[in-house]
Amino acid sequence: MSVEIALSPHDAICAGLSGRLLCFTHAGGAGERFQDWISGFAPVLDVRSITLPGRGALSDHAPVESWPSLIAAVVTRVLPLTDRPYALFGHSFGALLAYETARALGAKGRPPNLLVVAGRAPQVAAQGTKISGLPRAAFLKELEAIDGTPVEVLSNANLMDRALPALRADFTLLERYDADGAENHRPLDCPILAVGSDNDLQVPFGSVLGWRHRTRLRFECRLFTGDHFFPFSNPDFADSLFDYVDGSLNEHSKDFHRAG
């Protein structure tokens, strides 16, 4: 069975730009989460968001619970977008997905020029009880406890009916992720910027620092104010991310166009 992956629409104003940023959201999220970035960063940076099956425009598609199937589908979808200097950004579950996508693209000789991650390092095992298979009421209680879903969604039965399959699938993927195996992964051939916040109860800053072991090139780590959703709630984060990504990709753009 084929797996459909959706990308945010191409913005013609970005057609000739040198840099591209591909964004992966948290568990259960859809690409619409990054709409403000898509419109706000144009026309300087081409921002695309990735939507997985079971949410957003693909809400009628069955969610995926297999890492190999998901990565294969994502790579097939985004590979044509590696025709210019590009970066990957992932938040929470999306950080692992961005990382695995970077590994797969690297294996095809098209590694990203930068990986930005807001989440625990892949070799850091997830803590706490596995929740993906819990009955509905217990699952919702756990979501509320970890502050992983907005209150307005949790309290809306219709919204939760639509969101639950994707949430369960993403938590299943998180619970199946092989953190021990990640310890032995070959470091990436791209720089990594790892970002965290000072009040993230799910991701201690020490587990963010663990990303330094996942690259053989430059590693930087930055701390922001906020909770687990600081990439969207901290008003300074988007501009800081844009400045960093734009500067990094501009460096690579000169060599990219010279080689081409």
Count of strand segments? 7
Low-confidence stretches: 254-260
The strands making up the biggest β-sheet line up spatially as: 1-3-2-4-5-6-7
* Overall pLDDT metric: 89
- Report, as a whole number of angstroms, the end-to-end distance: 37 Å
β-strand amount: 5-15%
Determine the number of helices (DSSP H or I, runs of at least 4 residues): 10
In CATH, what is the class? Alpha Beta
Overall shape: globular
CATH superfamily: Alpha/Beta hydrolase fold, catalytic domain
Helix residue percentage: 40-55%
CATH fold node name: Rossmann fold
| Biggest sheet layout | 7 strands, mixed
Question: Could you characterize the architecture of this molecule?
Answer:
With 260 residues, the protein is of the alpha/beta class. It has a single domain, classed as Alpha/Beta hydrolase fold, catalytic domain (Rossmann fold, 3-Layer(aba) Sandwich). The protein is 40% helix and 14% strand. The protein is built from ten helices and seven strands. The protein has helices at 35-41, 67-78, 93-107, 136-145, 151-154, 157-176, 179-182, 205-209, 230-233, 237-259; strands at residues 6-7, 20-24, 46-51, 86-91, 114-118, 192-197, 219-224. Strands 1-3-2-4-5-6-7 form a seven-stranded mixed β-sheet, sandwiched between helices. α2 packs across α3. It is globular.
